[in-house]
Amino acid sequence: MVDAGGRPQDSVDMLSSASPPAQHEEEPCRPGRSLDVSIILPVYNASHWLDECLQAVLHQDFQGTMELSVFDDASKDDSRAVISRWSTQLERRGISTVISGHDSAQPGGVGYSKNRAVAQSSGRYLCFQDADDVMMPQRVRLQYEAAVRNPTSIIGCRVRREPEGSTERYTRWINSLSPEQLLTQVYTSHGPTVIMPTWLCSRDWFQRVGRFDEGGLGVPEDLLFFYESLRRGGGVHRVDDCLLVYRYHDQAATQSVLEETIWMLRVAFLQERVLSQWEAFTIWNAGKQGRRLYRSLSVANRRKVRAFCDVDENKIRKGFYTYEESKEKPKPRVPIVHFREALPPYVVCVKLDLTGGGLEGNLLSLNLKEGLHYHHFS
User: Fold this and answer.
1) What Rg do the C-alpha atoms of the chain give, in angstroms?
2) In the chain, where are the structural domains located?
3) CATH top-level class for 12-257?
4) Is the peptide bond before 345 cis (omega within 30 degrees of 0)?
5) What pTM value is reported for the model?
6) 238-255 burial, b if ≥16 CB within 10 A, otherwise e?
7) pLDDT confidence of residue 33
């Protein structure tokens, strides 16, 4: 049924000029009938991308019940008009729409928007979608099926990067990780091993992990949520089909995340999950990144570093790395040795897929098992 204005009566439209609500208030799930999947779509100045994004939602081949939950985070373009134009078509297709937002001078941020879109939705499963990306027709169906089998996991998928060839190494990493590496490579600089624009998970698991951080610009809300999910025993699963066109452009939210913030989060998680279990270890790389990791460790974990190892004869000939900034007396001096003389376990601080296979070959020659004898921190 539709109202006098032609809008379906079960559509909820809450766009207003009110200021954003308090950022840490608890918001219950929207009452009403329970749906299978809610597509969670935060929007900020996304009118350029929305037609293609929403058309892809319309063409999903999922046969269950589905809704689109949109939160417009103070867009200053015509995003709202584009969303309204598509809502009727979506309703006719059986995809109910829930639309809200605010007109404050400043946006609340990505975490804030996602939390609001989740709170107003009804689906038992949450499919996160960025406004500048495009779903393949089978995305919701295949990831929903995987999530039903893995109810405490974050479900991702393979992607196609657009423009083609942009972030080539990163895209290859996203798509080529083995099921085991989805858990062992969570400390690398790439971030979550299944990227946020591909996430689908159960509402129950989302609520158990907790909401996204609402710190705003520069805060990696996806990495924080991902790490908390792992802390709570959550799994990571990837559907090995390309289900998303993942766009790269200068206005993407990921461009605003501070590298130093991510570095410190990774160090803290590595110390919590790995180094706390090791009595001693070797840092693989006596160069800039290896020394930076060493300096970032707690005093207790620095004392566990038995050596740096490397293949660079110039570094090895120096014999030691001295931590000159340390306030300890005497200042710590850590041996530098060839990797074949070093003892596992290792924290590997050499970038993956950047040495022509040299790093990977050296690790393979030692008959080591990733996740047991070494972890990548690159």
Assistant:
1) 23
2) 12-257, 274-376
3) alpha beta
4) yes
5) 0.90
6) bbeeebbbbbbeeeebee
7) 60
